[in-house]
Amino acid sequence: MKEYNLTDSYITDITEKKALSTDNLQVYYGDNHAIFDANLNFPRYKITALIGASGCGKSTFLRCLNRMNDKVARVDGEIMYRNTDINSSKINVYEVRKHIGMVFQRPNPFAKSIKENIIFALKNAGINQKDELEERLEQSLKSAALWDEVKDNLNKSALALSGGQQQRLCIARSIAMKPDILLLDEPASALDPISTSKIEETLQTLKKDYSIIIVTHNLQQASRISDYTAFLHLGHIIEYNSTVNVFTHPKMRPTEDYVSGNFG
Ligand SMILES: Nc1ncnc2c1ncn2[C@@H]1O[C@H](COP(=O)(O)OP(=O)(O)OP(=O)(O)O)[C@@H](O)[C@H]1O
């Protein structure tokens, strides 16, 4: 692999309102320093893509943003959300996850009905009113572009849905909690091209109401759907800029090599 200077970086200033920001974020898995000094501002109501070669730390970084790494890694630094450091040990992580939802690479619906998949998490969060549950069920499935396909079969097992439908159900399950921020870790990598484009369309619609941060291996997908892109290499954020600039006028050599296919 080519050797690059990892201390140089280009991080653009975000002019939009911020949804979330990281300040000197460091992640360690034992002796393995996986994320170095990440300082990023994520804009509200935009899609930000995290790209980079396998093992560069994309998922690690994403998972810190709603405290999913607590049990496996040491995470130092601040993650600021609504003027609060949500990386503080005093913060209730379950509260954090109500505001910052996560969708994983493989669709992981519960072995329950479509309806129960949505309602279960809401009831666990203390929402018990029938009208409220029904309203959130319909709204979340509509927002995830699944309602028309399932509205007559809400009691059918979620496991009988296609992979793409299951992933949209997982998105619906996340947004039923009415989070502000949606984190997605390669949500379409296990899906066929038609299901992938449906997920991409859904994300474009969702960004009206949610700030979205997505990890993707797929450079075309990042350039199609995201407004901002961060390129990571060996745990360092090398470049962060508008997606059009990252792909057409990269400022850093490693980014240029990566987006032009001359990396490694
Ligand atoms: N649970 C874990 N325990 C120990 N080390 C881990 C763990 N998860 C990731 N790592 C290490 O952290 C580094 C970054 O991994 P990470 O999965 O975040 O990269 P990635 O860019 O998301 O990779 P990929 O694109 O292959 O999913 C790697 O060195 C990896 O081995």
Automatic annotation (TrEMBL):
Highest taxon, organism lineage: Bacteria
The keyword ATP-binding is annotated on this UniProt entry: yes
GO biological process: phosphate ion transmembrane transport
SMART domains to which the protein is assigned, alphabetical: AAA (SM00382)
SUPFAM superfamilies found in the cross-reference section: P-loop containing nucleoside triphosphate hydrolases (SSF52540)
Bilayer-crossing regions: none
Entry's Gene Ontology cellular component terms: membrane
This protein's record includes keyword ATP-binding: yes
Segments forming domain ABC transporter: 20-259
Keywords of the record: ATP-binding, Cell membrane, Membrane, Nucleotide-binding, Phosphate transport, Translocase, Transport
Alphabetized InterPro entries for the sequence: AAA+_ATPase, ABC_transporter-like_ATP-bd, ABC_transporter-like_CS, P-loop_NTPase, PstB-like
Gene Ontology molecular function: ATP binding; ATP hydrolysis activity; phosphate transmembrane transporter activity
Pfam families, alphabetized: ABC_tran
PANTHER family reported for this sequence: ABC TRANSPORTER I FAMILY MEMBER 17 (PTHR43423), PHOSPHATE IMPORT ATP-BINDING PROTEIN PSTB 2 (PTHR43423:SF10)
Record-given protein name: Phosphate ABC transporter ATP-binding protein
Native species: Companilactobacillus nuruki
Chain's gene name: pstB
